[in-house]
Each structure stands twice: as C-alpha cells, then as structure tokens.
Specification:
- The protein has helices at residues 2-5, 20-24, 29-38, 41-45, 64-76, 84-88, 93-104, 118-126, 136-140, 162-174, 184-191, 194-205; strands spanning 147-149, 152-154.
- It is globular and about 45 Å long.
- Strand 1 (147-149) and strand 2 form a beta hairpin.
- Strands 1-2 form a two-stranded antiparallel ribbon.
- The two termini are 30 Å apart.
- The chain is mainly alpha-helical.
- It contains twelve helices and two strands.
C-alpha cells in the first residue's frame, strides 16, 4: 500500500525517489489517511492535504518531521491556535507520525494565484547580508522544497498559499509565533518590511 501512496499521481514532489522515504518518515500513510479523516484534519487541510482556503496551509508533500514538530508544539503550547491546539491535544505519537506520513506522501498543488515576483525571488535566493537577512533557500532548499540538515527539518514552503505565508511571516515579525529553531524566523521576519513580506509570499506561492 505504501508503494501505491508514493507512486504515480501521489508522489509528494518532484524529487529523487531515494529522498521520498526521508520525507514521509516512519509513520504509516495508510493508517494516517484514516486517522486524518477521523480526527477531522481533512476538513480544513483537504482530503489530499491540499487546502482550498488560502489562510489554511496545505500539508501535501510537506516533511513529516516538520508536521510532527508542529503538532507537538500545539500540544505543549509552544505554538498556539484556537483550533489546532484542541485537535492536537489527544493525539498519540503514533497518530501524529501516521497523519504526517499520509500528508507527506501526497502531491502538493501549486498556488496559482500568485508568483513571479523578482524582489521576492532575490530575497529567497540571496537574502540581504547588510541587514543580516539570510537567504531563505539556505534553509528551505532549492525551489522551497524543504530539507533536513543537522537534525533539523526545514519545511517545504514553495507552492504554499500566499495568504498563509504572509500571515505566518507577520506572526513571526510580531512575535505571535516563536517556535522556530533558535528563534531564527523571528529575527528574519522582524527585519522585513511589509512590502518585502508581500513580495516573498507572492514569489514563494508560485514556486
């Protein structure tokens, strides 16, 4: 069954087949499909992990390790959300691993409502050393596909909804979200002007 979930139309992203197990992690995607439905994850994030609401993130093709960390953070209160904090509260470690594996095994759709922003592309690829803004690609990888390095899972952000991306950058900037490793996202977002957040979100959503 796993082979069916990660082959053909269900391949998570355009990547080398050898990296797909790393993206899916140790959970059971088949069990995760059932658990994500019974726990009502699919109602907001989409049956295949692709949300139809620009304010709600798509999880298809996301690294399972990142999704698990976010669920743990919702449980602990390190990250707060009126709905997610309640939903995550009673999930077991196995539930979280399975749900994350299911969403990670799905094909991510591109947000076609935006994209092609030169200023955003420059920030993503090069950052701004004068302001100590690191290039997004250094952590989030080529094309924003995410990566694992030094035991840290950096999420895939390419193709994510523009509204969600801009909202999270604003939350990082205001300190309303603060669960990135070493607070790196707070530092970067605080240095970004509002128009740069708009440019980055536009560019990333079109990757």
């Amino acid at each position: 069954m796993l082979a069916l979930l990660v082959s053909g139309k269900s391949v998570a992203v355009d990547e080398d087949a050898s990296t797909i197990p790393q993206r899916i992690g140790s959970g059971d995607p088949v069990a995760g499909r059932e658990t994500s439905e019974s726990e009502r994850c699919q109602e907001c994030h989409g049956q295949d992990g692709n949300s139809d609401d620009g304010r709600i993130p798509s999880h298809a093709g996301q690294y399972a390790g990142y999704l698990i960390k976010q669920l743990r953070d919702f449980q602990s209160g390190a990250r707060k959300h009126p709905v997610m904090s309640v939903i995550a509260e009673d999930l077991s470690e196995a539930d979280m691993a399975d749900i994350a594996a299911y969403f990670a095994s799905q094909k991510r759709r591109q947000d076609n409502s935006a994209g092609g922003n030169a200023a955003g592309g420059n920030l993503f690829s090069n950052g701004d050393q004068a302001r100590a803004i690191e290039a997004c690609a250094n952590c989030h990888g080529e094309g924003g596909k995410g990566r694992i390095a030094d035991n840290v899972t950096y999420p895939a952000i390419g193709g994510q909804h523009k509204a969600y991306l801009s909202g999270q950058l604003v939350n990082w900037k205001l300190g309303e979200r603060s669960n990135s490793p070493g607070g790196v996202m707070n530092k970067i977002a605080k240095a970004l002007a509002d128009d740069e957040i708009e440019a980055l979100s536009t560019y990333l959503s079109g990757l």
